[in-house]
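Quick review question:
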């Protein structure tokens, strides 16, 4: 868009996103921009670092799943092809693993000294899946992109 000196088609100002669509009036000649806005809990623009996205969207889930109540969490990235989802999620995967096992280790040490009630390394099983949904296909990103079947409960 910028290389073509065109308008951005999306403007992101937390917590809202505006989508700008070039339209033609009914005369077929006159051009105008139509703007649609969407509100979110948090919105990130193209200049946001993976670390910031992680700290806002995912890091709070680590405390939740380690609180001792059998918590589960899902991180879901959605967007057009080439928008950076795979790159960002790769960084988030690394940060989740580091923070999750650090917190479990700290809880284990605290539990040996009188107990905090939180999950620890000795009494916690960690299950992780990473998959991609694209064009009606689901691939396991931890198993050489093996195709998965969708089952309903």
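Suggested answer, residue by residue:
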């Amino acid at each position: 868009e910028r290389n073509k000196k065109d308008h951005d088609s999306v403007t992101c100002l937390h917590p809202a996103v505006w989508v700008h669509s070039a339209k033609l009036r009914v005369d077929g000649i006159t051009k105008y921009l139509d703007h649609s806005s969407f509100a979110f809990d948090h919105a990130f623009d193209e200049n946001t670092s993976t670390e910031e996205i992680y700290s806002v969207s995912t890091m709070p889930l680590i405390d939740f799943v380690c609180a001792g109540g059998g918590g589960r969490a899902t991180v879901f990235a959605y967007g057009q092809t080439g928008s950076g989802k795979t790159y960002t999620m790769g960084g988030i995967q690394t940060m989740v693993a580091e923070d999750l096992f650090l917190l479990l280790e700290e809880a284990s040490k605290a539990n040996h000294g009188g107990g905090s009630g939180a999950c620890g390394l000795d009494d916690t099983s960690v299950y992780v899946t990473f998959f991609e949904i694209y064009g009606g296909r689901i691939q396991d990103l931890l198993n050489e992109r093996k195709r998965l079947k969708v089952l309903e409960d």
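Why it works: Strands lie at 10-13, 16-24, 31-39, 131-134, 137-140, 146-147. The first helix runs from residue 50 to 57.
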